[in-house]
Amino acid sequence: MAPTSDLSSGEAVVRRQNKGPPIKFLLPLIYAPILPLIRIGLRKNPVLRDRVFTAVLAGGFLHGFYLVTDLYDVESK
Asked: What is the superkingdom listed in this entry's lineage (predicted)?
């Protein structure tokens, strides 16, 4: 006897297929090349250059911290 599946009982889990790559993991590919471009492009204004570079670098670290804590949160549940 073949098992029957009753879709109205709520036992079937419907997942949305994610066709594209996860954007949150591809962000380093965007801001990593920006760091040297900031150093080169703002060479004549060292105060602004250092502030923008520090802000982008801090944003990268915060993004990495978010991803790591999100992974640990998923594993603990």
From this structure: Eukaryota
Using one digit for the tens of pLDDT, what is the confidence trace for 25-67? 888 888 889 999 999 999 999 999 999 999 999 999 998 898 8
Query: Is the distance from CB of 55 to CB of 31 less than 8 angstroms?
Result: no
The position carrying tokens 């419907």 is 14
Residue that has been written with the tokens 């949305």 in this structure = 16
For residue 38, which of 29, 27, 48, 25 has the smallest C-alpha distance?
48
Angle, helices 28-41/46-76, rounded to nearest 10 degrees = 170
Question: How many other C-beta atoms lie within 10 A of the C-beta of residue 44?
Answer: 7
